[in-house]
Design brief:
Belongs to the GST superfamily. The chain is an alpha+beta fold and about 240 residues long. Helices cover about 55% and strands about 10% of the residues. It has a four-stranded mixed beta sheet, covered by helices on one side.
Amino acid sequence: MIDLYTAPTPNGWKVSVMLEELGVPYTVKPIDLMSGEQKTDRFLALNPNGRIPVIVDRDADDFTVFESGAILIYLAEKYARFLPADVKQRSVVMQWLMFQMGGLGPMMGQANVFFRYLPEKIDVAIQRYQGETARLLGVLDRRLDGRDYLAGDYSIADIANWCWARTASWSGVDRAPFGNLNRWIERIAERPAARAGIAVPYDLSAKLEGAADRSEAAERFAKQARTMVNTGSDRNKEA
C-alpha cells in the first residue's frame, strides 16, 4: 500500500496517473495548499522542501519519496513498467522526463502565477512565460510528428508532460496551433487510468482545461489560489 500526499495540480496528477496505470493500491492524503498545509511541521517531515506530491511506501518500511519526477522513476523501477530496461531507450525517456521537470513545468507554473494568481498584472512577465510555454509546447509538437508517444512506447515521460500540457489554457496559451500535441493529449485522455488519475483528489478539469478566457468561475478559483503566492514567494510553483 502506498500513501499519496497530493493536491489537484499537474505535479500531483503525475503520480496519481502513474499509480492508476500501475493498478497499485494507494490511499489519498489530500494536502490543502491554499491553507499552507504543505508548510506544516508534519508535512515538512515528509518533504523538507514543502511541496506536493510525496509518497510513503508502506510495503517498503515506510520509504518516503518526494519530487514528482523521482516518484515516477521509483515507481517505474519498482514495478518494472513505463521505463525501458534498454539503456538507450531508457535515456530517451529520461530526457523527455527532464524536459518536463526542468522546462515545461516551471515555465507553465510561472505563467500561471503571473497570468492567473498575482492581482497585479505585469505584462512583460506574462508575455515572457506564456511565450516560453508556447515554445516548449512547440518542441513537444515537433517531437510527436509521426509518433504516438514521446519516447517509443507510452512511458513516464508521456505521463509527466501530459499532466502539464493539457492545462495550457490555464496558463493563457492557445494549443490550437499544435496538431500533433493535441492528438497526443487526446490519445492519452482516452486511457481510463489517465482519466482517473487527474480526478485525484478531486477533478478540476473544467477549470484548468477550458479556462483560456477570464470566466467568473476561473477568476474565483484564481483568487483563492493567490494565497499560495501571497503568503510566501516560495509557494508559486505548487499549481
